[in-house]
Design goal:
seven-stranded parallel sheet, 247 residues, alpha/beta, globular, Rossmann fold
């Protein structure tokens, strides 16, 4: 059954060239799903798509509506209309205080992490609802619930993703389209190159299990939320925090 869980389904994964997105894509592909990796790093996306076998790579800037529109059209032409969206594209932004945070950097984080999720959700939701089935899983963060110091834009953007998920999930609750998000604590990915060591250690110190999360652990939860096995959860936030989230 596990090997056919996603048979006949088409999944779009934003930020799918690497990290959490790629791990989620691999999990769905292993279950028989068709995969479109949406990423602004098209060369890396092509390499990752080749590693999955049968996946396609689509260049996209998630913060631009016209880019999302083109990516959706390309996906539908090469594969099929998407049944699943994993919105994983994101950046961390600089580690600095609110008072010192550069306005341009703030806007970039919000544009990619929040507006990008909004645009990708918006692009696929209507078609999914018309077809009567869909799964949208947004990647949020425990930072969006607790707020990490020296990461205000990231924390605010992920809080926005949580709010968006709850709103859209309720709007689509009777359509057969389920919308949920996952809120991991710190997970070891290439995004670490965007963070200071001090910030990484701060986040690690908050995790009672005293270790970083793994991308495959995130993918396990995301793949369930994206599957037909998930039937009565929508507009919900699922923590994956090694004990950090205690409420």
């Amino acid at each position: 059954m596990a090997g056919a869980l996603f048979k006949g389904r088409t999944a779009v994964v934003t930020g799918g060239a690497r990290g959490i997105g790629l791990a989620c894509a691999a999990k769905i592909a292993a279950g028989g799903g068709r995969i479109a990796l949406w990423d602004r790093d098209i060369e890396r996306a092509r390499q990752s798509a080749a590693s999955l076998g049968g996946a396609i790579a689509v260049e996209v800037d998630v913060a631009r509506e016209e880019s999302i529109t083109r990516a959706l059209a390309a996906t539908e032409a090469q594969l099929a209309p998407p049944d699943i969206l994993i919105a994983s594209a994101g950046i961390t932004g600089p580690n600095t205080t609110v008072v010192q945070y550069p306005v341009d950097a703030w806007k970039q984080v919000i544009d990619i992490n929040l507006t990008g999720v909004f645009l990708s959700n918006r692009a696929v939701a209507a078609g999914m609802a018309e077809r009567g089935w869909g799964r949208i899983v947004n990647i949020a963060s425990v930072a969006g619930k607790e707020g990490n110091p020296n990461a205000s834009a990231y924390s605010a953007s992920k809080a926005g993703v949580i709010g968006l998920t709850k709103a859209l999930g309720k709007e689509l609750a009777t359509t057969g389209v389920l919308v949920n998000c996952v809120a991991p604590a710190v997970v070891k990915t290439e995004l670490f190159s965007q963070m200071t060591e001090q910030h990484i250690q701060y986040m690690l110190s908050k995790i009672p299990m005293n270790r970083l999360g793994e991308v495959d652990e995130v993918a396990e939860l995301v793949s369930w939320l994206a599957s037909p096995l998930c039937t009565f959860s929508t507009a919900a936030v699922f923590d994956l925090s090694g004990g950090r989230a205690t409420y």
